[in-house]
Amino acid sequence: MSTTPASTRPLHGRRALVTGASRGIGRAVSVALGNAGATVHLLARTASALDAVAAEIRATNADARVHVCDLTDAVAVAALVRGFTDDAPDILVSNAGIFPLSPVQDTSPELFEDTLRANLGAPFRLVHALLPHLRSRDVADIVTIGSISDRRIFGGNGAYAASKFGARALHEVLRTELTGTGVRCTLISPAATDTPIWDPIDPDNTPGFPPRAAMLRPEDVADAVLWAVTRPAHVNIDELRLSRS
């Protein structure tokens, strides 16, 4: 358990909302922000997994709130945002998403549309709903977790790449529109990161993919998020690209 006084933690008094918080990068980001003193709102679709992350954060003398929500459901997102009053987040980390891999010919239109809805439409819906709250703060942060696939093309990646290139574009538009408002926008684009998202692919035994031992760790991405949101208020970290050294 951390013995650091709450008042000396760099995010003391701030509130973060992390999507996809139940595992992988989202879990690591949530724990890092909680350790830094933020109240962390954890969002995913599985209550039991979120409860476990919340317990991990609370064990460090930080606060965590659990929200079970499907971000592709517009009604659910609207209800979530209405539930925030004085405790509305001033840090939004959009991390949740899906990772389908198949050649374009084998990607059904339904799967393509589902991927865009989860990886691009859901972050847009959430940031659109939260922007009035974020703009009311002296300083606020919108952090988008991108991917190496938001700038580099791989075969078999049509749906995922389209969604991540779109997320990059949305980030850049937000950065342009929000400059000078106090709302900072950061895109963090990691190379392959060892999370459960790779489990169906089994990269250690599938040609063409890096082995898990050669991947980044979720905590590496979490460190980048924490660094970006703890810069002085006048500093915006536009983009961080992470790769394995």
Characteristics:
245 residues; alpha/beta; Rossmann fold; seven-stranded parallel β-sheet; 6 helices; 7 strands; 38% helix
How many individual domains? 1
Strand content: 15-25%
**What name does CATH use for the topology?**
Rossmann fold
User: What is the string of SSEs from the N terminus onward?
Assistant: EHEHEHEHEHEHE
Q: CATH H level: which superfamily?
A: NAD(P)-binding Rossmann-like Domain
The radius of gyration over CA amounts to 17 Å
Strand order of the largest sheet: 3-2-1-4-5-6-7
* Structure classification: alpha/beta
Low-confidence stretches: none
What does this structure look like?
This protein is an alpha/beta fold. About 40% of the residues lie in helices and about 15% in strands. The chain has 6 helices and 7 strands. It has helices spanning about 25-35, 45-60, 75-80, 110-135, 160-180, 220-230, and strands at about 15-20, 40-45, 65-70, 90-95, 140-145, 185-190, 240. It has a 7-stranded parallel sheet with strand order 3-2-1-4-5-6-7, sandwiched between helices. About 40% of the residues are buried.
